[in-house]
Every structure is written in structure tokens, then in C-alpha cells.
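Lecture 7 notes: from sequence to structure.

We start with a single chain of 207 residues. Read the sequence below before looking at the structure.
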Amino acid sequence: MENISPKTITDPEIGDLYLARLELEREKLIAAGHHALAAAATASPLHPTNAAGMFAYMDGVKGLRAENLGGNWEIFSEEGVEGIRNDVLKLRVLFVNVNQACRKADPRARSRKGAGSERVACGDMFEAAGIDLPISVVKFHGDHKTYYLMVDQFGAMELSLPVVKNGQFLRCIDRVFLIEGGDLDAVDFGINEPTNDPDLDIVVSRK
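Now the structure, written as C-alpha cells:
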């Protein structure tokens, strides 16, 4: 069991050291996010209302793989959840569209996360060390840690380690700010979009 002190890293030099320990690079993660933003921008008024979010998700996953595969990083695909994995460091990285990134408040996913995401992200593997909030130390007793590359509609991006519970990010344990948005035109990911997380629970009933 590992004790983790939650932290938010905004300083680029400290953030790069943190990423290096994960065998990741800031520039490659940002490039992956740009794959997603470019794809979202291709959605037209003739597309379904959730098209931009779907395009961003699909090319966000593609970007993660295109920019980061190699070394110990391989394709991850399990329970309908897609991303990359590093079995040496026991890490995974997934992609998600969020309402905001690199802000004081923790990001929230633009769509509800499926049961597969919750299982993969080990939502039940984090425990509070004590009962006082805010939690200063949490305990992790899972196998792999699952990080998310979080991208908002303004181009802000962060790499964060969230607790996924009941379809939402309960809170982020670690956050590394990658790039602040604002230099790009906002991309509308869709307001009332259904889940763009493909790990949907499919129920098959006998006739």
C-alpha cells in the first residue's frame, strides 16, 4: 500500500521532473491534446450535437498513441477503455474532455464515465488516511495507476490522477498543469452530449 500526498504542480520545471519519472514528456502530451482539438474543430453544424466531443475523444486517444508509444509505453485496450500503458512503471494514461483544466477547481469530465473506466481507474483503490477534509494523504492499494490527459475547450491541458466514482471524477490526487488555454478559439465539445466514453454497459436480455 502506498501513501500519496495530493499535489497540484504548476511550475514547469517541477512538472517536467514529475513527468520524467513517469517516462512522459510535456511536449508529447500537449501534441496529443492538439490532435483532439484539431479533430473537434472539424465538426460542422450538420454533424450530431455531440460530434465535436466524439471527434476529440477519438483523436485524443490516437494522439496519445502516436506521440507516446515506444520504450515501455504500449497500446492499452481493456473493458472498452482505450489509451496507453507502461507495465514496467504500472501506469496507464487515458484521454478525456473536461469542463476546465489548469484552474483551482478540479476538472470534471464532459460526459459521465462508464463502469469500465471506474474499474480501470481503480476508484475503489484510494482510501482517505483519516476523516478530515480536505484529504492531506490518501492510500493507494491498486496495481496500476491510471492518469488522464485532460483537455478543455480553450486548449488548456493537464495530466491528472483522478478518483473515478459513480461516473464522475470524485477528486484529483495529483495534477500537473501542461499548458494554459486562451490562445485558441474555444471549441464547443457539445453541451448535452451523451457519454463519449465508449465503455458503455450493454445489457443482453434473453427472449
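Helices lie at 12-21, 26-40, 51-68, 115-120. Keep this in mind for problem set 3.
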